[in-house]
Write a structure and sequence with these properties.
about 190 residues; six-stranded mixed beta sheet; three-stranded mixed beta sheet; about 15% helix
Length: about 190
């Protein structure tokens, strides 16, 4: 009789353990395996999440003015500028055109481009603008600013005309909250 009670108790505990540790009827997750290398990219499965943004390049993406003296830069929904370094010759006037190439609404993924004086810390500057929603997250009257665009929504663009004072490295950034970590660069005048 004692043996029967012990067997019954063990069986009951085993059932409780099974129910408590995974009896929720979810499908098991497939094992992670390395994807096979193919010559052609495959279309994502229906309902699949979009791929994560590419990591920031280790080398800056350089832009130079075109024949009309315009540097074309885009900002996208992955919080990236198409160029992170603009190279100019001393005394060269330049126009920088920023286009928001994304699709998300301006209220959640707006982009601007602010050119600052050499030596300005972009992270400290961006922190000043976080509460300046009424002025497109640009701190009003900030003496560090050389020029800036307005905050742009999807498909919008704006052009700045700059005459930088001389050789140096002029930081630029997007001041929309949270963007400065990925959306910043340098205008290098030699």
């Amino acid at each position: 009789m004692q043996r029967l009670r012990e067997t019954t108790t063990l069986a009951a505990l085993a059932v409780l353990a099974a129910v408590g540790c995974g009896g929720d009827k979810r499908e098991p997750e497939p094992a992670q395996t390395a994807p096979a290398q193919t010559a052609e990219p495959q279309a994502p499965a229906p309902g699949a999440q979009p791929p994560a943004p590419a990591p920031a390049p280790s080398q800056p993406v350089v832009a130079t003015p075109d024949a009309e003296g315009v540097v074309h830069i885009t900002g996208n929904d992955q919080m990236r500028y198409s160029a992170t370094r603009i190279e100019l010759k001393a005394g060269q006037k330049v126009k920088i055109e920023l286009k928001n190439a994304g699709a998300l609404p301006k209220e959640v993924m707006g982009h601007n481009l602010i050119v600052l004086k050499p030596g300005t810390d972009v992270t400290v500057f961006a922190a000043k603008g976080m509460n300046a929603k009424a002025s497109d997250y640009i701190p009003p009257g900030a003496p560090e600013i050389i020029a800036h665009t307005k905050l742009l929504g999807p498909g919008e663009s704006e052009r700045l005309e700059l005459d930088l004072p001389g050789p140096g490295s002029y930081p630029f950034l997007c001041s929309f909250p949270g963007h400065v970590g990925l959306m910043n660069g340098q205008i290098v005048v030699q």
